[in-house]
Structures are given as structure tokens and as C-alpha cells.
Amino acid sequence: MRKISPSEITSKVKELCIRAACELGSDVIFALEGFRGKEESPLGKEVLDQIIENAQIALKEDAPMCQDTGIAVFFVEVGRNAAIDGSLEDAINEGVRQGYKDGYLRKSVCDPITRKNTNDNTPAVIHTRIVDGDRVRITIAPKGAGSENMSRLAMLKPSQGLQGIKDFVVNTVREAGGNPCPPIILGIGIGGNFETSTILAKEALLRNIGTPNADKELDALEKELLEKVNNLGIGPMGFGGRTTALAVHIKTAPCHIASLPVAVNIQCHAARHKEAVI
Amino acid sequence: MANPIKITSPLTDKDVEKLKAGDKVLITGVFYTARDAAHKRLIELLEGGKKLPFDIKGQLIYYVGPTPAKPGRIIGSAGPTTSGRMDAYTPRLLELGLKGTIGKGQRSQEVIEAMQKNKAVYLAAVGGAAALIAKTIKKAEIIAYEDLGPEAIRRLEVKDFPAIVINDIYGNDLFKIGVERYNIRRSNKTKLPKGESYA
Fold it and tell me: Which of A29, A212, B81, B96 is most buried, taking the most CB atoms under 10 A from its CB?
């Protein structure tokens, strides 16, 4: 067994919180620049320019790219031969506490009923999986509410099939309009059950833009859906234009013979995710 | 694209009359920040027959909850939040002379009608461009509800704050006009690709 101290996890998480808020991934910037070249709407072009310039300022000044520094979502893979000397959950939450305080990030977590702010952005949302090996892989994907609020889940009938899935995705984007800060990225989870589909959808967002789906048929479906949503004309910030989505990412899992769950997790252009391996 | 129109806030009827959906504007002057929790308190004050913590006549409200300011900075990152969450409160404030709101995303029909009736405009800033927008904020002070943290009401002084007119007083809506212009009309039932086996 390889021993891992909770304090090591805490300091890594702290660093990940701050880096995720201030450093937009090069895959997103590359995609934004590509779509900027193809955008037909003059206003849309200006919006994309502002977004790219904003990412550069954030990187240079260590400033959060968006004021909504999100609820901190983690995907953690714990090697079966890694022995964490304490509570993984406590170690992560302490890292969030320190990162959001010392990084001057916004504390955006509150009680759902009283709306009282917890004032340290905890608790984080943590998804844990046991894997082979003796390492711990921590991926943070802080999520703002603008795009999360426009995300949807449908329990379709199996008879609605592929066409039903496509219609649901396109309608979700149409109804979201300018609210989720387009250009967006769509994480789509198909199958599993009620809760699995939503986790698949969020996990799908972790894939870098430009990396094709390993499944050829899903890859074709991603491309078709991207074209469909970009034909809606919503455009950057909903002002009208060609660039509504930068990418569509799909993950699937087998489901019950009577079910067809489809989850659409909308991600704004501040598509933040960073990972570290301990 | 046409050059942006420079406006100074607070605004007069004359100022809003010249604004059209789709116009780019640069705002210089004062505006106030408020989000969900602050709006709830403002409306509770009005329902209790009390005065608002600032004179709302002619003012602009910016829907924002900034990140904390780093030492030596005026404010943290400060981009717009989704305006639709404030729809329930906005008509009441428009009746009192609020001249405009700044946020992102679409407004309800009720708010759009109240804006026309009370001669007010809705502007959008670029969501997520929070570090860039913060550079146009020259002064920030909390004037009410400090306990709400990022949701406290702040008085901001801005210079050339960039925004787009979404709803003007003539009933035009950039979200409708813009999307209409770039929507590719075609049957939703395009032929299924190889992925058909998933059906």
C-alpha cells in the first residue's frame, strides 16, 4: 500500500480550485478562435473576441475568468493500493475552503431552503471511483449556475428512440437561448438510470474539445447534433449567429429495457476543468 | 459594425428614446448592483411602505455578484448574471422610475411590457467576460445589505462599460431579431446518419 496524507490532497485541491478559475484550457481557446473565424454575425464576432480577450486577461492577472467561480465538482479516482490516511471528503473540502478564500473566489454555496451562504464554498460535490493502481487522480470541474440551471433530464420512452434524443437535445438548447452564456458545450448522458445519466453528462464535459469520441457512431451523432444546434441561430450570448455550441460530447451506459434516460448538461464557454495525480 | 453609442447614467427619458435593440453602448456614470437576495429585500421594503436604500429614479441596476477584490483592487471579476431570475421583482421597480437593467439572457413578457410602459431598456453584457468588464469599474462601495456578501448592493462608478441593447422602448427584442436572422430553416427530420442503430 502507498500512503497518501490528507494534507497532500488538500494542498493539491486548493491549487486546482485557483487554477481552474483563472486558466481556461487551451482546447477551449483554440475552439473559440476557430469558430470566431467562421462566425457570420458581426456582433457575434465581437462577443467571441471579448471572451478570448477576457481569458487572456484572467491568465495574465490571475483573475477569475468569470465571477461565478461555481460550486466545486470533483471526480476522484482512488487506486486500490493507495491508502489515504484520513477522510478523503474532509481533505477535499478543506482544499476548497482554502482555495476559495486565498484565491479570492466567490463563495456561491448556500442552504437550499434558508438560502444562508456557507461562506466557504463547501460542501463540494464529490464523485469517487475505485480503480487499479496506487495513485489518486483528482479532477475539478467548477460549475456556474447560469449554464447548470438550463440543463435538463428526460426519461424518454424507448419508442422515441434516436429521434427523441435528438429532439430533446435541440429543444433544450433552444429553450436555454442566451441564458447559459453561449457558446456552450453540451455534455450528454444517454442511458443508465435517472442519476447515472446526469453523471455521465457531466463526465462527458471533461473530455477536451477536439478529441473525437472513441465510438464511431457516437462521434457521428455528436457531429450531427453540433450542426443542428448551431443551425438554431442563437449565436454568442444569444445575440444571433452561427456559434451556439463549440462541441457536443456524449457518454452512454446500458439502461433498463423500459427506459431511455437522456441528460443534457449545458456548460458555458468558461469550461473549466483541471486535474492532478498524487 | 457601427460605433458604440456613449451614454451617461443615471438615464433620462431622452437617453432611452434614442436606444434601439442591437445598439452597442458604452456606459459612463453610476449604477447599482443587485441580485436575487437583494431584490427580495427591496420588494419587502416597498411592501412594508418603507424607502429604498437608494433613489431609484433614472438609475440602472446591474445584475452581478462579483468575486472578492484582491488587496489593492477596486473589485474582483464582475460579469453579468442571468436576468430572468429577477423578472418577478423588476416590474415593481420599473414603476418607481428604474430606467434600465443590465444582465444576460432573456426577460419575461411581463418585464418587456413593463419596460415599454415605463420607458426603460434592458441591456446585456457579455456573460463570462468578468475580468475584462471589471476593468471598466472605477469605484465600488457597498451601500446596503453587507451581510449578503457577493449579493450586497453596491454603488459602482464605471467608465465605458460595454453593453448591448436587447429590449428597447419600441418593443424590439434583439434575442428574437438576432436568432431569426441566423436560424437555418430546414426540416428537423434530416436523414439519420449511421447512428440509426441507436434507435
Answer: B81
Which residue among A96, A115, A142 closes a domain? Answer: A142
- Partners of A64 on chain B (C-beta within 8 Å) are 67, 76-77, 130-131
Query: In chain A, which residues have their Cβ closer than 8 Å to the Cβ of B129?
Result: 50-51, 53-54
Question: Is the backbone of residue B76 left (phi > 0), alpha (psi -120 to 50) or beta?
Answer: beta
pLDDT > 70 in chain A, percent: 100
Same structural domain, A177 and A256: yes
Same domain, A187 and A257: yes
For the stretch B43-83, pLDDT in tens is 999 999 999 999 999 999 999 999 999 999 999 999 999 99
Choose from A166, A237, A272 for mutation: most chain B CBs within 10 A.
Answer: A237
Q: How many CB pairs under 8 A join A and B?
A: 192
- Domain annotation covers residue A47: no
Whether residues A67 and B184 touch (CB distance < 8 A) is answered with no
Q: Active-site residues of B: which are they? A: 39
Q: Using an 8 Å CB-CB cutoff, list chain B residues near A106.
A: 65-68, 76, 150
Domain endpoint, select from A112, A142, A172: A142
DSSP string, B64-128: --PPPPPTT-S-S-----BGGGGTTTHHHHHHTT--EEEEBS---HHHHHHHHHHT-EEEE--TT
pTM of the model: 0.93
Q: Which domain holds residue A119?
A: 2-20+65-142
CA–CA separation, A197 and A255 (whole Å)? 9
> What domains, with CATH codes, occur in chain B?
5-183 (3.20.130.10)
Same domain flag for A16 and A79: yes
Q: Are residues A137 and A157 in the same domain?
A: no
pLDDT digits (tens, 9 = 90+) for A213-244: 999 999 999 999 999 999 999 999 999 999 99
